[in-house]
Amino acid sequence: MKMFKEKIELKSKGSIPTYIDITKEVRKAIEDSEVENGIVTVVSPHTTCAVFYEEYAHDENEEGVESLQQDLNNALEKIIPYHTSADTFIYPGDEHYQAVESWPNADEYLPNGDRSALWNGDAHLKATIIGSSETFDVEKWNLGVGSTGYIYFVDFDTTRSRTRKCSITVIGE
């Protein structure tokens, strides 16, 4: 049994949900793993990010968001509106603000003490619904998906841009 693990870094935009096609990186990890048959798992460690499998839609809006991704944004907003005020969600509560304010890097999360920088309750809920991981077959050294299927990493947090990480693990023989 072989196991190969790799972490990739991704940059989110911050102003809109950021969708990143990571299919090439997953295929490369499979190639580097030398696993002929097994599974590959893609995992986000971030609570406002998700991993999902979807058809590549070709069409994009003026912000570079594919049509299926924009449809996903529209559908999710119907059940989880954007976090635009302290009254939109219960989260974050006063105890959470106080905990973040005590962190040594608090200014990174609360620039100039601005508590609205933590208004990302929608991102947490959207990521929870979509899920933080996906697992795929590896068949004869290839990603076992159809030709139109792509793997996407999405950061739903629109409070600021940042560097995100994603783990790719290949297991098999």
TrEMBL record:
SUPFAM superfamilies xrefs: YjbQ-like
One Pfam family cited in the UniProt record for this chain: YjbQ
The protein's name in its UniProt record: YjbQ family protein
